[in-house]
Backbone:
């Protein structure tokens, strides 16, 4: 690997492709960056899963969540919101004893609550329609990692609306991370091989 002299936050891999440092030092993160992060997700199931995982990531590294994602999918019924909304105290107790996931009671309860909120949104267009309605007119153009914002006017507004709709663990930073992950904004560094590949931003 070599560092791009003009853009020191980019690392050129053995394959000749430039990636940010965070996606260059770990095989799992590199695969996630190359194939998934920032690609459009426009369905209820996909957005509910990513919203849930972003909530679990709060205060932790994304690598931790990504390594545990298969277990999360298993114990949360594939992140089917209809199934998760039916979880009761017994299910919560089961989850809190499962060492394969992040055992945070508040985050587990938030996931169950958010599943119910997701179902109720179906009466008003659905989760995907709501989330994507907050797509901004422009997207950041960061040259360095320091240029990447942690929130935006749109993420603050979406967080407020989600809370109004009875979602929880959806602060502006968590919501902005969701918007990055599902392609609503493109915060790939300029010069990265993934910049502009989502098709959302020309």
Residues:
């Amino acid at each position: 690997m070599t560092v791009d002299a003009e853009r020191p936050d980019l690392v050129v891999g053995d394959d000749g492709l430039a990636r940010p440092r965070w996606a260059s030092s770990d095989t799992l993160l590199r695969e996630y960056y190359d194939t998934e992060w920032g690609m459009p997700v426009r369905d209820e199931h996909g957005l509910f899963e990513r919203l849930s995982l972003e909530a679990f990531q709060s205060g932790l590294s994304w690598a931790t969540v990504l390594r545990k994602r298969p277990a999360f999918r298993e114990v949360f019924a594939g992140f089917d919101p209809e199934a998760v909304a039916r979880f009761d105290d017994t299910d919560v107790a089961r989850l809190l004893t499962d060492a394969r996931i992040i055992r945070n009671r508040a985050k587990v309860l938030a996931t169950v609550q958010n599943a119910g909120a997701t179902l109720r949104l179906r009466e008003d267009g659905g989760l995907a329609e709501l989330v994507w309605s907050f797509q901004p007119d422009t997207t950041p153009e960061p040259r360095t990692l320091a240029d990447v914002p942690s929130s935006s006017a749109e993420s603050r507004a979406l967080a407020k609306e989600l809370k109004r709709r009875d979602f929880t663990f959806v602060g502006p930073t968590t919501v902005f991370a969701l918007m990055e992950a599902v392609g609503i904004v493109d915060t790939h560094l300029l010069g990265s091989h993934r910049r502009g590949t989502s098709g959302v931003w020309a």
Q: What stands out?
A: The longest strand covers residues 10-12. The mean pLDDT is 95. The beta strands are 2-3, 10-12, 18-20.
